Amino acid sequence: MAQYRYRVVDVFTEKPLEGNPLAVFPEAAGIDDATMQKIAKELNLSETTFVLPPTRSDCAAQVRIFTPARELIFAGHPTIGTAYVLLDERKIPGECARFALEEKVGPVPVRVNPGERPMIWLTTPPIQFGKTYDRGACAKALGVEANDLLDLDPQWASAGNPNIYIALKDRAAVDRAWCDQNAIFQIKSSSDEPLCIFVFTPTLDGAYSRMFAPEYGVVEDPATGSATGPLAAFMMRHKLAPSADGTRFVSEQGAKMGRRSFLYLHVHGEHGSDGIEVGGYVTPLVDAIMNL
After folding, report:
1. Same domain as 78, residue 113
2. CATH (domain of 101)
3. pTM attached to this predicted model
4. 14, 18, 27, 47: which one is catalytic?
5. Quick one: DSSP state of residue 149?
6. Residue 30 has what DSSP assignment?
7. Are residues 214 and 154 part of one domain?
8. Residue 142 near residue 178 (C-beta atoms within 8 A)
9. Largest Cα span, the chain
10. Are 278 and 263 in contact (CB under 8 A)?
């Protein structure tokens, strides 16, 4: 029987049992791909990560990321949560304020604001924008009225994981929204790859958000770092970013499902031309052993 140590941390929160839980296997050498997927399905969190030696000299570690249904090339809360565990266990020196993690998307830069509770930032991979979608069809799929949407077309955007961004008029509309897999099939064409539905409304500080990903085995995600960089870019495109400071704002996500999360954004350059950082705090919760 093989034993593998893992930790569960809550990401994008300073409080236990809030934010987005993540399981991290910090010493995953010896676990094959099929078993990684089975473990992620067994734990049934939004994501589970497996840390391996890097294959690139410019990265501190290799990170494999799995939802209960499939492997991802990049994800935000797994990047930040795994970085926290590696720092906490001194697998990356605590004085190392900048490093990169090797993910399927490529090297993901990480920056650390040190302290008793460090703030950990990732740099979002290049963002792509795609087609727009019918507002009425999106409203119907979400179970809201067409006039609950802001007067702009929902749009596909991705930094590694594709999302449809749908802007709603207020928090109440965001809280009423719901989306199952059939609803996604009503919106997208049969040729579209699996995607997520990201709904939000602008706030004085940034955005109030929710994200649905049933095609990835995640009914609703409490905090979605990979979607938050494109959210910032989408909001800036449509002049929805906070007027006081268009380069620093925050997305509050997960509140409706009782997992309140805060994802901080720092936009560099005009409309993020020099990069968009997504940051947050991490709260350790569980140390455990899995027997396989």
Report:
1. yes
2. 3.10.310.10
3. 0.94
4. 47
5. B
6. T
7. yes
8. yes
9. 58
10. yes
Give dist(CA 34, CA 71) in Å, integer: 10
Could you tell me the residue range of the domain that residue 175 belongs to?
128-274
* Same structural domain, 260 and 287: no
Q: What percent of the chain has pLDDT over 70?
A: 96
- Could you read off the pLDDT of 136-178 as tens digits, one per residue? 999 999 999 999 999 999 999 999 999 999 999 999 999 999 9
Let me know if 193 is a catalytic residue: no
CA distance 39 to 26: 14
pLDDT, mean of residues 104-115: 94
Specify burial of residue 258 (Cβ count, 10 A radius: 0-12, 13-18, 19+): exposed
Number of domains in the chain: 2
Q: Do residues 258 and 147 both lie within one domain?
A: yes
Cβ neighbours of residue 273 under 8 Å, at least 6 residues apart? none
> Is the same domain home to 186 and 241?
yes
Q: CA-CA distance, 69 to 171, in Å (whole number)? A: 30
